[in-house]
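Handout, section B. The chain below has 354 residues.
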Amino acid sequence: MKKYTFGIVGGGMIAQRHAQAIQQIEQARLGAIYARNPIKARQLGETFGCAAYSDLQEMLADDTIDIVTIATPSGAHLEPTIAAAKAKKHIICEKPMEVTPTRIQQMIDVAKEEGVLLSGIFNRRFNPAVEHLKKAVEAGRFGTLALCDAQIKWYRTQEYYDSGKWRGTMALDGGGALMNQGIHTIDLLQYLVGKVKRLSASMALLTHENIEVEDTAVAILEFENGARGVIQGSTSCWSSTGHPAEIQLCGSHGSAFLTDETFRVWDFKGTHEQDAFVQQNLMKSTEKGLGANDPNAINVIGHIRNFENVIQALDTGETPLISGEEAMQSVRLITAIYESANNNGTWVELVEGK
């Protein structure tokens, strides 16, 4: 089997998480890291035992690099993606893929033009609990879906936003509690339930200062399949342990509440062979929210699985689970929420390609 050499674009915490994940994949090796600051680049190269660059074009000129992962601030994903695609590198880009659907479409188009693979990162999709929940939905075990909700009641300090000039800006963060922290759970909600037809939303900046984005938001959803739902997202919900992110799916024949990586509720009218596995392995008590108070607490297991899925797609010629088009869906939904909230909760219809 082919072994793929990775290059990483970015010098922050997420870039380091990418490096840690790549080094645990049998079919991967970490070839290089690019960081704009030469000192930071050299430090990362020494830490991870790879080449270090402070000139992106120099890294992209390395013919041994097959795949580039993008771990820059959210609103700075487009430019390195274009550069990597033109250098004929496959690309894996952190969430959100970019801060508007238009910019994501540019990324999709350039990857297609250059004949390279473009994939996003939504590492929570690869959790075993999510896989079981997806199977239950596809098997019709919920009957008619009625209420489908996402709750992200997290906490970030003012120091978190003050720690980087890009944090809390629309240009580079693209949004706040929804676009940055809540997007993983919002992606899962759409992945499991289907696309949203229309929505009405409200948002506010309640507990932080000197940022351009929301720290609290609520949206009422109408899905294309007829189900209703609510998204609640915040970085203003203090807790000593951090509240787990939760997805609640309820229908005429069953209910399941996914709490981070395990279930709080798994209850259906009919029994199924998957129930025994879920009850024995995935009904664990979640006392501490995964990344709810501290982004550094998030593990790299999901990233490993995400990267392995891309490698499998390259080996087989299949489409990765999180294609550019898939990665766009959550950004399209969140930007529609912002549009509604900025217009006093006016109902916004989600139109393909908007």
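Note. The mean pLDDT is 95. Compare this with the example in section A.
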